Amino acid sequence: MKLVIPDSVASAQDLAAVLADVQAYAKWASRELIKQKVAGKSTGAQPVISPEAADIIRSWSGGKDMTQTAIDGLVKALEDYKKSAPSVTITLAAVPSGEVKVRLVAWCRKNLAENVLVSFRLNRNILGGLVVAYGSHIHDWSFRRKLLEAEKPFSEVLASV
């Protein structure tokens, strides 16, 4: 079984929330399997989990019923993913919409690493553009840097307008 993390699960915090949901589901499923073996019927309602956690559970099971072994394997796979995934920090000048976040995460997972975790920061001082920190590298494509590196000071450019 292959672990597929949706692009809406971007950061380590998102992954931790999904892991908590899957662990709650695993605890419920364990009790339900015992109840079904002993009493032959289910008595508890499934816990409410996030849509992302539900998607991960569904893709992990491959459309089949989840066994306790499969659920334990999913929890272990998520924990391993969290420990081993490289991380990228993207700093923006404004709060990105959900669609922008998902597109940036999809790009990072396609071009950097399939299992990369992306966290977002806000820094209005960069004025626009973005700053990307990946490993020991920082790539600054901010408007602030462009203004500071310009041949003519910004005040001269404004005076000539």
Structural class given helices, strands, pairing? alpha+beta
Give the mean pLDDT: 87
Alpha carbon gap, first and last residue: 62 Å
Q: How many whole angstroms does the radius of gyration measure?
A: 22 Å
Describe the structure.
By secondary structure, this protein is α+β, with helices and mostly antiparallel strands. It has two domains: 12-83, no CATH class; 86-149, no CATH class. 51% of the residues lie in helices and 15% in strands. It has helices at 12-38, 51-61, 68-84, 98-111, 143-149, 154-159; strands at 87-92, 117-122, 129-134, 137-142. Strands 2-1-3-4 form a four-stranded mixed beta sheet. Strand 1, helix 4 and strand 2 form a beta-alpha-beta unit. Helix 1 (12-38) crosses helix 2 and helix 1 (12-38) packs antiparallel against helix 3. The longest helix has 27 residues, at 12-38. The mean pLDDT is 87.
Features:
6 helices, 161 residues, 2 domains, alpha+beta
